[in-house]
From TrEMBL:
This is Folate-biopterin transporter 3. The lineage of its organism: Eukaryota, Viridiplantae, Streptophyta, Embryophyta, Tracheophyta. Gene3D superfamilies: MFS general substrate transporter like domains. It comes from Liquidambar formosana (Formosan gum). InterPro entries: BT1, FBT, MFS_trans_sf. Keywords: Membrane, Transmembrane, Transmembrane helix, Transport. Belongs to the major facilitator superfamily. Folate-biopterin transporter (TC 2.A.71) family.
Length: 495
């Protein structure tokens, strides 16, 4: 393996023979090809293909397309009010809240002798059926539409958890390639999201929101392909009678960890910091497109705005990784929370039309707003992700990390529902936006509140341990699933 990496490094430096690229532009073109080839040889091509499909196409491209199409579907097909669309957008994300369940299933319960492949197939079929149901029905009842959207979300969540387990397995067996695998995941997801958001508006304009749902059955079908071709060791003579015991042991271990003061306090902060940042995105979307005095953006423009947001999010990741990752948790969270609150004032300037009085066009201002807001939001999220990875006790790292991520999703769900309630109370409707600025102002002030809750966050920096020593030395039971099943250890290792 080391020889393979040295060979690739040697080639990338432009010192190879037999017509390999030397330096400059050719080297930039060939470097990713050699990198992919090295990963394919060391980790098997089916794994690399799986990461690209799940992270890049299913999550990145798929979520980029589905966000815009879902917003237009709720507004134009289901004729929902902004407050209703806001609440339902939270309901669609419920499958992500039960990520620990998907993680336990893929770790503990093999199907027909395989731990990963059947779950990819199931996730893919779930996505295909749900997307085609939305696309082919002329007038689908709201309840069935929500069920289909939730099923599609569940398909993506199950595929996400399963590919994370595969990444973990390879990170443990090939520790020197853990960073390369994490880079592969991040690059695939970022590029996929950028392409998805860029195409979303044009596709909604050309084929409508329901037509886009039909297109989204293709990424789901590719997930089925991953389940068919993935190289995986067959499990023989698995004791299914002990599944209940394994579930019970894992649940007890997670509960024991959550009762620790060093764990529940940061978890409470993460939940409150997300829940208090009220989500009024649907109100802003309706104002973008329907308000008489608003910008009246077209589908293409909306998609391009979100694509710029994806670029801002990527810049936030790069900025944190290269500049901010070694700062103490409290310091970086203090400043990012203040900046996150201040960024909410940009929406207020837009809705009050102050930008036009200053001579700044709507589109230019919204693009800046989206890029800055998502960049700051990503920088705020990264230390929370690192903090979560350091709260995981030894032996249950993967499942406990999934549990922490589900707590974060509960926070985002609370944010969406509270935002929908606020829009309803302020009577923000499809045609009435007079009080939208009040909702934005309340949201901005609430974003500052978590600054006063930073005492819940450890004073330590990201490079030191947080948990007590005894929790870092928990031993796995004799019948525990092998270390390959630590679902999210790749994220932990990369930090």
């Amino acid at each position: 393996m080391e020889e393979a990496k040295e060979e690739v490094s040697f080639q990338l430096e432009g010192e190879t023979q037999e017509g390999k690229p030397e330096k400059g532009l050719k080297n930039l073109i060939w470097a990713p090809i050699y990198w992919f080839r090295m990963l394919g040889e060391e980790l098997h091509w089916s794994f690399v293909l799986g990461v690209v499909i799940v992270y890049g196409i299913s999550q990145g491209l798929g979520v980029g397309l589905s966000r815009v199409s879902t917003q237009y579907y709720m507004k134009d097909e289901q004729k929902l009010q902004p407050s209703e669309a806001q609440v339902f957008s939270g309901i669609i994300q419920i499958p992500w809240i039960v990520k620990p369940l998907w993680g336990l299933l893929t770790d503990i319960v093999p199907v027909v002798g395989y731990r990963r492949r059947p779950y990819f197939v199931f996730a893919g079929f779930l996505g295909v059926i749900s997307m085609l149901s939305l696309s082919l029905h002329k007038k689908l009842d709201l309840g069935f539409a929500l069920l289909s959207l939730m099923s599609g979300s569940a398909g993506i969540a199950i595929a996400d958890v399963t590919i994370d387990a595969c990444v973990t397995q390879n990170s443990i067996s090939h520790p020197s390639l853990a960073g390369d695998m994490q880079s592969l995941c991040g690059v695939s997801s970022s590029i996929g999201a950028l392409v998805g958001f860029s195409l979303s508006g044009f596709l909604v304009h050309l084929v409508g929101s329901k037509g886009v749902f039909g297109i989204l059955s293709i990424p789901a079908g590719l997930v089925i392909l991953v389940g068919m071709v993935l190289k995986e060791t067959h499990v023989h003579n698995f004791a299914y009678r002990r599944v209940n015991e394994k579930f019970l042991d894992a649940s007890k271990a997670m509960w024991t960890a959550l009762k620790c003061r060093d764990v529940w306090r940061p978890c409470l902060y993460m939940y409150l910091s997300l829940a208090l940042s009220l989500n009024v995105r649907e109100g802003m979307f309706y104002w973008y497109t329907d308000a008489k005095g608003g910008p009246s953006f077209s589908q293409e423009v909306v998609g391009s705005i979100f694509s710029v947001g994806a670029v801002g999010s990527l810049l936030g990741v790069l900025l944190y990784q290269n500049v901010l990752k070694n700062y103490p948790f409290r310091d970086i969270l203090f400043w990012t929370q203040l900046l996150y609150g201040a960024s909410g004032l940009l929406d207020l300037i837009l809705v009050l039309r102050i930008n036009l009085k200053l001579g700044v066009p709507d589109y230019f201002f919204v693009v800046i707003d989206e890029g800055i807001s998502l960049m700051i939001g990503r920088i705020k999220w990264m230390p929370l992700l690192v903090l979560s990875s350091k709260l995981c006790p030894s032996g249950i790292e993967g499942t406990f990390f999934a549990l922490l991520m589900s707590i974060d999703h509960v926070g985002m769900l609370s944010s969406s529902w509270a935002g929908g309630l606020l829009l309803h109370i302020l009577e923000v409707t499809r045609t009435q936006f007079d009080n939208l600025w009040i909702a934005i102002l309340i949201r901005t002030m609430l974003r500052i509140v978590p600054v006063g809750l930073l005492f819940l966050v450890p004073r330590s920096d990201p490079n030191s341990s947080i948990l007590p020593t005894e929790m870092l030395r928990i031993k796995k039971g004799d019948d525990e699933v092998e270390s390959e099943n630590v679902e999210m250890a790749s994220l932990i290792n990369s930090t």
